[in-house]
C-alpha cells in the first residue's frame, strides 16, 4: 500500500469533525490569557477515552495546534501573551495594534502559523526517524550549550539598557534556584516556607509579568477608554509582497522551531526567543523591532507552530515527548492502550497515517477559522471599554493560574509578579530577559550539574564534543553580533 | 540614576544576599562531584547580580542618563487608582478562598467596573448586571471546560 493509499484509508469524516472541534476548543484556550495549551490537552484526554485511538489522538493534536495558534490573539490585541511562546509576538503585534493595524497584525500572525505548521508537518512526515536520531544523541553537555545559546538572546531583547537587561537575566536565574535542588533533592532558598518548595512556576510568573502588569499599565491611563484603537479589518490577508519579503524569515524560523522543538525538554519558548533574535539580527532595520516590524510577528508565530511538528517527531518515532504538551499526548496514547516507542510505526501504521493527515486538516481548519472569522471579529469584539474588559481578563488569567497545579500559591505568585513587573517596566527594566531566565534557569542548572557529574568536573567535553562546540561558537557569534548591532545603533542615535 | 533604580537594585541585591547566605542542608561529607553543589549556582548568581548592578550604575555615570524608562511621576489620581486596584485584587484573592468563587467574583467585577467607569458613566444597575452575567458565564464555562476553582474555606 503506498503512502497516498494509506493516507486516504485513514481519512474518516467523523474524525475530521472531531479534529475540527478539537482545534476550535484549542483556539479558545489559546486566546484566553492564563489558559494554556497543556491545560487544554489534559482536560480533553479523558474525553477521548471512548473514541477510537486515531480519532482521540488526532483530536488532541488538533487541540495542540489550535491552542498554540490562538495565543497570538491576546498577545497582539491586548499586549498580554498568555503563553511563553507568544511573548515576542506581543512585542511587535501590540505595537501594530496601537497603530490601528490590529487586523493586519492578526493576518500576518495567522499566515505565519499556517506556514510554520506546514513546514513542521513536512519534517514530521518525511524526516521523522532521521531527525529523531539526531535528537537522541543530545546529552547534558549538548543541552547546556543549547541553553547558553538561548541565553544570548538576552542581549538583543534587553531594550535600551543592556546592563538592566543583564540584571533582569541574573535576577531571573536567581529566582529559578528557589525550590528543590534538582540534583540533591534538598530544599534550597525557600526561607523555611513550605509553599516555596515547589519553586516559582514560570507560567504564573509569566501571567503576572505580562498580563497583570499590563492590566496595571492600562489602568494608568483611563482617558483612553479602549485598549484597541479604531482599526481596519478590511485588509487581513498578507500581501504577496509581504510574503516574498518574509520568505527567508519563514524558512529560518521554521527550521529553528523544528530543530529546537525536537529537543526533549527544551520547548517552544526557547525557539521563539532564538527565532526572534535571529530575525532581528538579519534585518536591515533592527531598531524597528518591538515597534511594529512584521518580521517580529512572522519569526515568532512561524517558530511556534513549526515547533509542534518538531515536538511530535521524537514522540512518534521514539516515544520520547518533545515538550510538556507532547508528554500529555503520550498519556493520551497510553490511555488507548498504545505504547509509544520505536515500534509504534510498525505496530500501529494507521495511527501514524492518521496523525499525519489530521495534522494537516487541523492546520487548515485553524487557518480558515482565524482568517475568515477571527481576524475580522476579534478586533471588534475585544474593543470593549477597559473598565469591562480588565476585570474579565484578571478573573480568567488568575483562574488559569490556579488550574496549572491547583495551588493558590500560583495565583499569589502571579499577583506579586504583576506588581513587580509593573514597577520594573515603568522604570525601564526589560521583562523579557527575566522571563527567559525563569523559564530556562532550572533546566540549565540541572543539565549543567548532570554534565559535570558525568564529566567528573571537567569542562573539556563542552569544547571537544562537536555539537556542543557548534552551539558555543554560535553563542559567541550571537553575542558579538548583538553587541556590534547595539553599538551601531548607538552610533546612529548619539549626536 | 533615579531613586527608583537604587531601590530596585537594592531589593534585588538583598534577595541575592539572602540566597547566597542561606545555608542548605548538607548531604554528608561527600565532596561536590558536580563542582557546584546546592549553593554553588546561587552564590555565583549573587556575584553576577552584584556585578550587573555595578555595571548599570557605571553605565549610568559614564554614559549619562540612558534607558531610564518611561517612569515619569504618576499623578496622585493614577497612583491612588493603582493602589486601590491592587488592594481590590488582594481582597478578591482572599475572597475566593474564604468565601467562594461566585460571590467574590461578582463583588470584584461589580466594584472594579464601577470604580473604573468615569463618574459621568457610572451606572450601578448596568455594572451589577454586567457582574452578574459575567460571574454566571465564568461559573458555567469553567464547569463546562472542567476548570477548577478553589473551594471556599468559609472561615
Radius of gyration of chain A: 22 Å
Q: Specify the number of helices of chain B.
A: 5
Shape of chain B: flat
Cα-atom radius of gyration of chain B? 24 Å
Which shape of chain A, going by the Cα principal axes? globular
Could you say how many structural domains of chain B there are in total?
2
Strand content of chain B: under 5%
H-E order of chain A: HHHHHHHHHEEHHHHHHHHHHHHH
Q: Which residue ranges of chain A are poorly predicted, with pLDDT under 50 across at least 5 consecutive positions? A: none
- Helix fraction of chain A, binned, reads over 70%
Roughly how much helix do the residues of chain B carry, as a percent range? Answer: 55-70%
How are the strands of the biggest sheet of chain A laid out side by side?
1-2
N-end to C-end Cα span of chain B: 47 Å
- How many domains make up the 3D coordinates of chain A? 1
Order of helices and strands of chain B: HHHHH
**Count of DSSP strands of chain B:** 0
Through-space gap between termini of chain A: 70 Å
Report the average pLDDT across residues of chain B.
Answer: 77
Model regions low in confidence, pLDDT < 50 over at least 5 residues of chain B? none
What is the overall pLDDT average of chain A? Answer: 85
What's the assembly state of these chains?
Answer: heterodimer
Amino acid at each position: 500500500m503506498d503512502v497516498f493509499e494509506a493516507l486516504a484509508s485513514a481519512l474518516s469524516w467523523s474524525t475530521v469533525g472531531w479534529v475540527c472541534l478539537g482545534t476550535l476548543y484549542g483556539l479558545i484556550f489559546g486566546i484566553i490569557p492564563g489558559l494554556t495549551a497543556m491545560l487544554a490537552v489534559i482536560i480533553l484526554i479523558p474525553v477521548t477515552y471512548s473514541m477510537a485511538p486515531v480519532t482521540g489522538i488526532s483530536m488532541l493534536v488538533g487541540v495542540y495546534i489550535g491552542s498554540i495558534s490562538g495565543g497570538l490573539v491576546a498577545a497582539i490585541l491586548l499586549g498580554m501573551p498568555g503563553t511563553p511562546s507568544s511573548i515576542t509576538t506581543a512585542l511587535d503585534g501590540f505595537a501594530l495594534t496601537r497603530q490601528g493595524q490590529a487586523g493586519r497584525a492578526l493576518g500576518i500572525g495567522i499566515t505565519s502559523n499556517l506556514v510554520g505548521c506546514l513546514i513542521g508537518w513536512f519534517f514530521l512526515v518525511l524526516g521523522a526517524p532521521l531527525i529523531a536520531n539526531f535528537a537522541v544523541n543530545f546529552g547534558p553537555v549538548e543541552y547546556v550549550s543549547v541553553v547558553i545559546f538561548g541565553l544570548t538572546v538576552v542581549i538583543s531583547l534587553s531594550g535600551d539598557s543592556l546592563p538592566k537587561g543583564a540584571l533582569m537575566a541574573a535576577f531571573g536565574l536567581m529566582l529559578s534556584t528557589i525550590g528543590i535542588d534538582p540534583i540533591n533533592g534538598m530544599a534550597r532558598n525557600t526561607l523555611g516556607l513550605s509553599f516555596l518548595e515547589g519553586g516559582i512556576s514560570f507560567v504564573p510568573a509569566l501571567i503576572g509579568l505580562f498580563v497583570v502588569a499590563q492590566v496595571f499599565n492600562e489602568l494608568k491611563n483611563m482617558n483612553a477608554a479602549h485598549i484597541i484603537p479604531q482599526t481596519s479589518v478590511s485588509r487581513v490577508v498578507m500581501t504577496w509582497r509581504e510574503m516574498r519579503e518574509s520568505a527567508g524569515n519563514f524558512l529560518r524560523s521554521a527550521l529553528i522551531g523544528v530543530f529546537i522543538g525536537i529537543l526533549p525538554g527544551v520547548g517552544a519558548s526557547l525557539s521563539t526567543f532564538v527565532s526572534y533574535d535571529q530575525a532581528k539580527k538579519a534585518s536591515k532595520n533592527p531598531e524597528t523591532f518591538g515597534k511594529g516590524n512584521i518580521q517580529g510577528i512572522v519569526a515568532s508565530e512561524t517558530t511556534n507552530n513549526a515547533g509542534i511538528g518538531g515536538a511530535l517527531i521524537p514522540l512518534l518515532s521514539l516515544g520520547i515527548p518533545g515538550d510538556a504538551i507532547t508528554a500529555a499526548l503520550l498519556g493520551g496514547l497510553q490511555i488507548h492502550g498504545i505504547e509509544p516507542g520505536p515500534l509504534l510505526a510498525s505496530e500501529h501504521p494507521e495511527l501514524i497515517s492518521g496523525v499525519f493527515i489530521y495534522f494537516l486538516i487541523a492546520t487548515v481548519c485553524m487557518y480558515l477559522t482565524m482568517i475568515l472569522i477571527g481576524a475580522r471579529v476579534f478586533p471588534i469584539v475585544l474593543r470593549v471599554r477597559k473598565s469591562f474588559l480588565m476585570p474579565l481578563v484578571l478573573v480568567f488569567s488568575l483562574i488559569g493560574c490556579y488550574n496549572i497545579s491547583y495551588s493558590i500559591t500560583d495565583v499569589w505568585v502571579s499577583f506579586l509578579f504583576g506588581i513587580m513587573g509593573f514597577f520594573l517596566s515603568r522604570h525601564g527594566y526589560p521583562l523579557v530577559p527575566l522571563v527567559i531566565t525563569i523559564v530556562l534557569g532550572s533546566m540549565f542548572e540541572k543539565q549543567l550539574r548532570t554534565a559535570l557529574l558525568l564529566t567528573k568536573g571537567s569542562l573539556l567535553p563542552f569544547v571537544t564534543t562537536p555539537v556542543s562546540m557548534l552551539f558555543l561558537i554560535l553563542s559567541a557569534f550571537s553575542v558579538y553580533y548583538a553587541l556590534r548591532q547595539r553599538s551601531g545603533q548607538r552610533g546612529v542615535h548619539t549626536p | 540614576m533615579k531613586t527608583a533604580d537604587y531601590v530596585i537594585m537594592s531589593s534585588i541585591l538583598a534577595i541575592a544576599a539572602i540566597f547566597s547566605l542561606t545555608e542548605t542542608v548538607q548531604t554528608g561529607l561527600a565532596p561536590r562531584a558536580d563542582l557546584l553543589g546546592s549553593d554553588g549556582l546561587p552564590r555565583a548568581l549573587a556575584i553576577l547580580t552584584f556585578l550587573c548592578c555595578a555595571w548599570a550604575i557605571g553605565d549610568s555615570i559614564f554614559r549619562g542618563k540612558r534607558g531610564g524608562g518611561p517612569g515619569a511621576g504618576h499623578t496622585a489620581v493614577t497612583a491612588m487608582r493603582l493602589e486601590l486596584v491592587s488592594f481590590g485584587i488582594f481582597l478578591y484573592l482572599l475572597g475566593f478562598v474564604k468565601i467562594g468563587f461566585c460571590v467574590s467574583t461578582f463583588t470584584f467585577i461589580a466594584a472594579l467596573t464601577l470604580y473604573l467607569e468615569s463618574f459621568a458613566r457610572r451606572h450601578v444597575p448596568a455594572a451589577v448586571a454586567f457582574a452578574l452575567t459575567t460571574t454566571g458565564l465564568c461559573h458555567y464555562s469553567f464547569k463546562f471546560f472542567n476548570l477548577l476553582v478553589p473551594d471556599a474555606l468559609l472561615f
